[in-house]
Amino acid sequence: MKNRNEIKNGAILRLTTSPAQNAHQLHERIQSSSMDAKLEALKDLANYSRDVTFAQEFINLDGISLLTQMVESGTERYQKLQKIMKPCFGDMLSFTLTAFVELMDHGIVSWDTFSVAFIKKIASYVNKFASDISILQRSLAILESMVLNSHDLYQKVAQEITIGQLIPHLQGTDQEIQTYTIAVINALFLKAPDDKRQEMANILAQKQLRSIILTHVIRAQRAINNEMAHQLYVLQVLTFNLLEDRMMTKMDPQDQAQRDIIFELRRIAFDAELEPNNSSGSIEKRKSMYTRDYKKLGFINHVNPAMDFTQTPPGMLALDNMLYFAKHHQDAYIRIVLENSSREDKHECPFGRSSIELTKMLCEILKVGELPSETCNDFHPMFFTHDRSFEEFFCICIQLLNKTWKEMRATSEDFNKVMQVVKEQIMRALTTKPSSLDQFKSKLQNLSYTEILKIRQSERMNQEDFQSRPILELKEKIQPEILELIKQQRLNRLVEGTCFRKLNSRRRQDKFWYCRLSPNHKVLHYGDLEESPQGEVPHDSLQDKLPVADIKAVVTGKDCPHMKEKGALKQNKEVLELAFSILYDSSGQLNFIAPDKHEYCVWTDGLNALLGKDMLSDLTRNDLDTLLSMEIKLRLLDLENIQIPDAPPPIPKEPSNYDFVYDCN
């Protein structure tokens, strides 16, 4: 009765068999003795399995077990036919695996129920069917899901598949297969126990995974799609996360091996001033010499520098970086230490303290220790150009820090200011996505302290120009018009609609749904899509509706129902920042995870505007500032080079007589 008013709008209905009947028919057809009938049935099953209602019905008939039996034993039955019917056999297996992947993606059945025989069979396809793209792709997808969803299955898959078997698939030309291969490697890496992770990283290094990815993926003559960029980002994060153990390890001042590293730093820096033999000079004399040298090396604690490395982060990682720099860039290391030891105390750039703070800063920039985001694809090609990319990154940045210190003519009181400038230099250089470490270095050369000052000055001037009282009054007058303009733009974007990716804790999937606002701003239309749309999606292809009048609230982040569920995905900070939900009726909800921050702002602003609430996103703030600035500049064009007073000019006195007034008539 509630929705009877919608009947007059009309709808085109298509008569079809029910999911339950379809499931029964297909369950029988895929067991047919006729190869052609079986092939056709599996093809239909692969297509229908995307629908969750059909999937539930088919799974209730124990359909998953039937498919796994066909994979485990059915393939042997057709081995003899394989030679004479190879295309048919390949298609049959491809449709079987496709149906299996689609059914499992609904999350109805647990992954823990599969046998070792099934895992062995899927793993064998990765080697056997390297030339059959569809079988290989589905097999890799199944292996990835198994590893991510079950600890027991991770152990079984890890025994069946080796990195050596996966590497050849990266050397092909099919980017989709390369993406799935890296996804499996990432899954194995992510789920490996802590004690096995470093061992796996060593195997990846031996197999030259980094250089293969650099040659065949990053520097291949084709664009990198979003899914591949995401997998490269995950690999980058997991690789840097190997540093977390050292980052969180405090130095033990009593550990002789650790103290030897500090001695080595001193030896390399002051090799010319070899320490005297034990026979000559007292212990006190040697201690005072060590203290003097440790002071020159820039440690805070001159007597016992080991105490400088007891703070975590960066812990022992800072000392590792310093030793790497001293050994692999010895000339630069000696130059920095000697340069600073010859300056006045207050003007020296303390190498030890700088290295510790810089290591901590680089760990924050690269988010060492954080889990990879499910939606981010922000990888840096330059980190794939060197086996010790983090250490090389540090070496470039410590030289930058020393250079910036000199340019700023800094003293020890300016230490934090220098670190802020260096962070800005690094962040600005990273946003340009340099393709190599050398390119990163040259970007930093162009971002000298003088250049940073110019950029800051330019940004400050744009702000300060508009702080006088008359300008502020003009701003207040114009602001409502600009906000209305932004509101209209947001609503127009909602009318165009956005494609959202369906995400779950099992794996990233190429499943999409679309949502758009009706042109009269009264109804939200939404529905599932087979693939990412090219262009606008018409309203009639979106089956579901939600009247705007029924919306009770829009919630974001941790308040979203889908962010309160348990699972690795839900704990991720970046996903939380992109999540929002529409609440309607008593318990109805429509859950979103925006593709990026821009779309998140557009949708939350648009929905708030529909509900008559303020648009509070960062994007609105930026747009308002930009448009206000442009509008004011346009209105003040006639006042170029004229000083605008802070106060209105005084009203002149009345004239002594009005003789100059005359009547025109």
List the helices and strands and how they pair.
Layout (H helix, E strand, L loop, with lengths): L18 H11 L5 H14 L3 H9 L2 H15 L1 H4 L3 H19 L11 H13 L4 H17 L1 H10 L2 H8 L4 H17 L2 H13 L2 H10 L7 H15 L3 H4 L8 H14 L13 H14 L19 H13 L1 H12 L9 H15 L23 H20 L6 H17 L5 H10 L2 H16 L4 H28 L1 E6 L4 E10 L5 E7 L14 E4 L3 E6 L16 H6 E6 L3 E6 L3 H14 L7 H18 L30
Antiparallel strand pairs: 1-2, 2-3, 3-4, 5-6, 6-7
Number of contiguous helices: 28
What is the average of the pLDDT values?
85
The count of DSSP E runs of length 2 or more, i.e. the number of strands, is 7
Looking across the biggest beta sheet, what order are the strands in? 1-2-3-4
Q: What Rg do the Cα atoms give?
A: 33 Å
Q: How many angstroms does the end-to-end distance come to?
A: 78 Å
The helix content, as a percent range, equals: 55-70%
Tell me, briefly, the overall form: flat
* Poorly predicted tracts of residues: 81-85, 275-280
Strand content: 5-15%
Q: State the major sheet.
A: 4 strands, antiparallel
Structural class: alpha+beta
